[in-house]
């Protein structure tokens, strides 16, 4: 965690607390709060995690800022029912950050919360296991089943599955996509992810165009939440929403109970498809934007290469 100077002026603290207790605060405010030290993707993660916590606090009628020790502990226990250890850890980091920046006692440091976290981390120690692969055949079956639907949620979800698979997107990258990330260039239809342009298929292009027409989006985030009434949110999708989209994929395919897809599943499946097509680990690493070849090597079943790559990557970090 980067060193962020806390707010010290009592009036500024009061105004900032009032703002962030609303939950959905724009990224400019987050950037100012964190002294402009974080990237857009990191700010999006903070924003999404904080919205999740504030929404929970509203449901149980407690204050999110400052948050009582019991409120934080119960939130952690609630999140643990559906979220993995990494997500819970990220939630706690965000809650801790918000309290420290506002010069408030950090409830996450209380022994009651730490004990609960340690217990949950032990129970979820297998979370690091590899996600089930979301393969091209899965994508094709889902597209065939839902492509004629005019429901906004169906159009969005098919686009999410397609972009995540073809672009090998991380959840944070998916959530951060602006409305103009898919674009036409001299080289064809592409998806802009940070400073990289990823080629998309004609099918993906058609799905993007269908989504833009159905949603009416012309600014802001490309992919957004949809409530139970079918109304589109202005806010980007959070990690919980993305998780539900991939859980839905298994249900639609009749695989619920035998396979569990997550936001990581398309990266696993795409890596395996590329390996089958003859791509090298280095080429897969580049296409998936990994810093090390360790993960793609693990995904395609090359455990020796994965172990060697991870050891090399760790040595590089220690040297740096």
TrEMBL record:
InterPro entries: DNA_brk_join_enz (IPR011010), Integrase-like_cat_sf (IPR013762), Integrase_catalytic (IPR002104), Integrase_recombinase_N (IPR010998)
Highest rank taxon of the organism: Bacteria
Residue ranges constituting the Tyr recombinase domain according to the UniProt record: 129-315
Keywords for this protein: DNA recombination, DNA-binding
Pfam family, one: Phage_integrase
UniProt keyword annotation of DNA-binding present: yes
PROSITE patterns: TYR_RECOMBINASE (PS51898)
Gene3D superfamilies: 1.10.150.130, Intergrase catalytic core
A Gene Ontology molecular function term of the record: DNA binding
Gene Ontology biological process: DNA integration; DNA recombination
Record protein name field: Integrase
Organism: Enterovibrio coralii
Lineage of producing organism: Bacteria, Pseudomonadati, Pseudomonadota, Gammaproteobacteria, Vibrionales
